[in-house]
Design a protein that fits this description.
Elements: H1 2-63, H2 67-70, E1 71-77, E2 82-87, H3 92-95, E3 100-103, E4 111-116, E5 137-141, E6 147-159, H4 164-167, E7 174-181, E8 187-195
Parallel strand pairs: 4-7
Antiparallel strand pairs: 1-2, 1-5, 3-4, 5-6, 6-8, 7-8
């Protein structure tokens, strides 16, 4: 008789343990779902801000004289579906909204222009630069509508402290250097391209 009671007692304890485990798992699943939805909402808000700023830049280029001070131009890379205006100056605050010119002059003259952009590890900003290959095309468009076709000629990584690497001028070419962080965030992916 004791054995039957022991078996029933063990089954009840096991049943109770499964109920607790189910409740905890369900609760954890709800927490993860809420977190995921809030992250998606934040990304959507940030993306909408970038779109509004790009629209504002397009309108300003038509109606404003001072646009040259704010924006370098527009960068387009069809292969990775990238199309953003680029701020003419860099700050941490601006970098959260659009890619920024980190170094260099303007698109009209020979020299190196370095543009940096965040890697959010999704499809925003410079997150897909790692999908570029040698000979891929990057289009830079100035605010007057002039287009400059750059061809990728070098792709490599540097240590995050090797800033002088992005400032190098490769001769008398119109050179474009794109820079973003790698997946481990300790290194920087460098894409070098030039007008042929």
């Amino acid at each position: 008789m004791n054995q039957i009671l022991d078996v029933k007692e063990k089954k009840l304890k096991l049943k109770m343990l499964f109920k607790i485990q189910f409740i905890l798992s369900f609760g954890l699943m709800i927490i993860v779902l809420v977190y995921f939805l809030s992250q998606m909402n934040n990304k959507s808000k940030e993306n909408n801000i970038s779109k509004v700023i790009s629209l504002n830049a397009k309108l300003n280029s038509v109606f404003s004289e001072n646009i040259q001070e704010t924006y370098l131009g527009r960068i387009k890379i069809d292969k990775i579906n990238l199309d953003y205006f680029v701020y003419n100056t860099y700050s941490d605050k601006l970098l959260k909204v659009l890619p920024c010119k980190f170094f260099g002059g303007n698109l009209h003259h020979p020299g190196n222009i370095c543009i940096i952009g965040h890697n959010y590890f999704d499809n925003r900003f410079f997150s897909n630069l790692n999908k570029l290959d040698i000979n891929d095309i990057i289009i830079m468009e100035d605010l007057d509508g002039n287009k400059y076709k750059y061809t990728v000629y070098n792709i490599y990584e540097i240590n995050e402290k090797q800033i002088e690497e992005v400032q190098k001028n490769d001769g008398n070419y119109k050179t474009l250097t794109l820079c973003t962080c790698t997946f481990d965030k300790n290194r920087r992916l460098i894409i070098k391209a030039r007008v042929n």
